[in-house]
Design brief:
Layout lengths: L6 E5 L12 E8 L2 E6 L3 E5 H8 L7 H4 L2 E4 L3 E11 L7 E3 L4 E4 L17 E11 L2 H7 L3 E5 L2 H5 L6 H7 L16
Parallel strand pairs: 5-9
Antiparallel strand pairs: 1-2, 1-10, 2-3, 3-9, 4-5, 6-8, 6-9, 7-8
């Protein structure tokens, strides 16, 4: 089995699940037990300042990060937080995805996101997406998802509302060239 860890799942135009339509999912784990990923382009309706205030009323967020949008990572455990960020050691619950990308689940990073000790780039995400063993492979086979190796620019630098189109563009095609009903040849 080829691992899809550090890949982007791109919802195909035919995706009819209202939660995942036009989403881009960063795959954190993919093995025989199943798959775990984080949607990187669906806002939750809250900014970083509001989230930090809920988590720790004494914490402060610098003005340049205060309006950063918190994302909905998926329909599972929406009260659980993840920080997808550029590599920086020192957080209690961090996992290196690549030499450039880490995911952290420890609350201690939240109090640092708005100051000088924070990772250079980060996404704050609530909840995650999960697939049981073989489920994602079936969805890929039925053309629900397109795949491409993850790119830190799409993760961290492309505006949220343009991530889906930018991820499709990484495949070498224009999003408007994809028919709504992708099929097998």
């Amino acid at each position: 089995m080829h691992s899809l860890q550090n890949y982007l799942l791109i919802a195909s135009p035919s995706m009819d699940d209202p939660y995942f339509a036009r989403t881009v999912v960063y795959i954190c784990e993919h093995n025989e037990q199943g798959t775990m990923g984080l949607v990187i382009n669906q806002p939750v309706g809250m900014n970083l300042k509001e989230l930090v205030a809920q988590a720790d009323e004494n914490a402060e967020v610098l003005d340049d990060k205060a309006e950063n949008i918190v994302l909905a990572g998926g329909p599972v455990s929406q009260d659980r937080g993840f920080i997808l960020h550029t590599t920086q050691e020192g957080w209690t619950s961090s996992l290196a995805m690549t030499s450039e990308i880490m995911v952290t689940t420890s609350k201690d990073i939240l109090s640092c996101l708005g100051n000088d000790s924070s990772p250079e780039k980060s996404l704050v995400i609530l909840g995650y997406s999960g697939w049981s063993a073989g489920q994602l492979e079936e969805e890929i086979q039925s053309n629900s998802w397109l795949m491409v190796e993850a790119d830190s620019e799409v993760l961290f630098d492309v505006p949220i509302h343009k991530k889906w189109e930018a991820a499709v563009h990484m495949l070498g095609i224009d999003v408007w060239q994809i028919a709504p009903d992708v099929g097998h040849a």
